[in-house]
Each structure stands twice: as C-alpha cells, then as structure tokens.
Amino acid sequence: SQTIHQWPATLVQPVGSPLSLECTVEGTSNPNLYWYRQAAGRGLQLLFYSIGIDQISSEVPQNLSASRPQDRQFILSSKKLLLSDSGFYLCAWSVGIVTEAFFGQGTRLTVV
Amino acid sequence: AQTVTQSQPEMSVQEAETVTLSCTYDTSESNYYLFWYKQPPSRQMILVIRQEAYKQQNATENRFSVNFQKAAKSFSLKISDSQLGDTAMYFCAFIGSGTYKYIFGTGTRLKVLA
Fold it and tell me: Which residues does B84 contact at the CB level (< 8 Å), separation at least 6?
C-alpha cells in the first residue's frame, strides 16, 4: 500500500535561517506531488506541485522553493526564513488526473 | 479560475443529530471531482468522501453523504448520527480535468456536543 512520510513534524527556526522540509512517498511510481500551507484559521494554499521529476510549478511567488531530486521525493526549501513563513505545511500526493489526493501528517513551522 | 466557497466558518451539532455543511464552487469545466476532507485536532487530512461530476448519483460513505447539485454548483456534506469523533475542520475541495491543482475552501469547523 502507498504511504507518505513528511518530516520534521515540528520546527522552530529563527528569522533568516534556511529551511528544508522533506516528503517521501512509498508504494507508487510517478506520483503528482504537492506542497500546501495552512495559515492559522485559513484554508489550504497551494505552494508548489510537480507532475514529474523535472516539472515543478510554483503557485505563489515568495520566499520558498521546491525541488524533486527523486521520483518520490519532494523538498520545500528557503534560503532565509521570514516571520510570515510560519504555518502548517502539508505534503500530498496523487496519481493520474482527477483523483483524490492523500496527505502527509504535516509540519508545524514557527519562525521566531 | 476555479474557486471553492465554504460560507460557514463554524458549526455545532448535538451528538446523534444530523448536520449539513455547505460548499459551492465555480468552474467552467465539465469533468471534475469534488471532495470533502476532515482535519481533526491531530491535523491529519483525511478523505471523507468524493464525487465525480459525471455521476448523477450522490456519493455515500456510511454516515456521510453528499448532495451534489451540478447546475447550482453546490456540494454539501451531510453527517448523520453525529459522533464526538466527528469534531474537526472540514474542507471542501475541487479538481478539474484540465489541471492537477486541488482547490480548497476555507473550511468549516464542526463541533459535536455531548
């Protein structure tokens, strides 16, 4: 069966420090991969999605970037964190088109 | 652009009662999927139910059912026999056949009261 691993679960980082959040999917090939951010009391904002190893789309121009070094690995990065980067980050995967997405357990990021 | 609107930020229901959460969406696509996700206090996103737009029959999963009105672009979730474990944030989501992007509403926080 397919599983998704996302880590770390919680992270506290100072302003200006770098960020790396990792997500890995097991049990499937060529998944579509997603990074969402959920700010307090708000819905899910799509940050990046990738339908292939060399195909990453950015939805919101900001302080973050994404990479897909392997088929089932998706990394969210920042060179210098801002206070506004605080939030709950969710990785998700799906297969094919017009199907449901499955989510990781999320990372709570607090920038201080 | 597709949008998903959940107009009820918070709702409450007595245990064992029935509650309906509202969702409307806007799209020009003819083929799409709609979903309801549950996010309990653990914050794990859990798929509750899905509906294919080409199916006229409303989806049902145990105590959860939807009322899909395609012409009105409405997709409400009915929870029957509410249980304390149903307390969570509920998100309505959309994905169209022409895109890989899931669009989420802002969520409805549901509290089931004992």
Answer: B15, B112, B114
Numbers of helices and strands, H then E, in chain B: 0, 12
The tokens of B112 are what? 């089931």
DSSP three-state, residue A28: coil
B47, B91, B97: residue with CB nearest A44: B91
Looking at residue B74, its pLDDT comes to 97
pLDDT at B2 over 90: no
Nearest by CB to A98, which of B45, B97, B107? B97
Residue type, A22: E
Beta-carbon separation of A92 and B45 below 8 A: yes
DSSP 8-state secondary structure symbol assigned to residue B59: P
Of the pLDDT bands very low, low, confident and very high (cuts 50, 70, 90), residue A41 is: low
